[in-house]
């Protein structure tokens, strides 16, 4: 088995080198707002109430289920007087 030299172990390939000094924060933020995305940002007080995204999804699914089951209870009559 060949042993790697110390210098080759610490070197990254050129395609993996990234100059973070040229990075731009939020580069695509405006485009995502304009085009829409599958990302939803929660307000901090709401985010504190949930442990993870699965908990948020469960809460929203149960809310949808409740609204579907009670929709007929709040629907107004279509009869005319």
Provide structural commentary.
It is a single chain. The protein is mainly α and 81 residues long. It has a domain at 42-76. The protein is 47% helix and 0% strand. It is built from four helices and no strands. The mean pLDDT is 83.
Q: What is the overall pLDDT average?
A: 83
Q: What Rg do the Cα atoms give? A: 26 Å
Question: The biggest beta sheet, please?
Answer: none
Q: How far apart are the termini?
A: 92 Å
Structural class call reads mainly alpha
Strand and helix order: HHHH
Stretches where pLDDT falls below 50 for ≥5 residues? none
Beta content comes to under 5%
The shape is elongated
**H/I helix tally:** 4
Number of strand elements: 0
What portion of residues is helical? Answer: 40-55%
Q: Keyphrases for this structure?
A:
81 residues, mainly alpha, 4 helices, 0% strand, elongated
In short:
It contains 4 helices and no strands.
Q: Which secondary structure elements does this structure contain, and how are they paired or packed?
A:
Blueprint: H1 6-10, H2 29-35, H3 44-47, H4 53-74
């Amino acid at each position: 088995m060949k042993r790697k030299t110390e210098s080759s172990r610490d070197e990254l390939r050129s395609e993996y080198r990234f100059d973070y000094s040229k990075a731009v924060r939020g580069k695509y933020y405006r485009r995502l707002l304009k085009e829409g995305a599958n990302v939803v940002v929660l307000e901090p007080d709401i985010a504190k109430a949930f442990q993870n995204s699965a908990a948020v999804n469960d809460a929203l699914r149960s809310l949808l289920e409740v609204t579907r089951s009670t929709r007929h209870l709040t629907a107004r009559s279509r009869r005319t007087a």
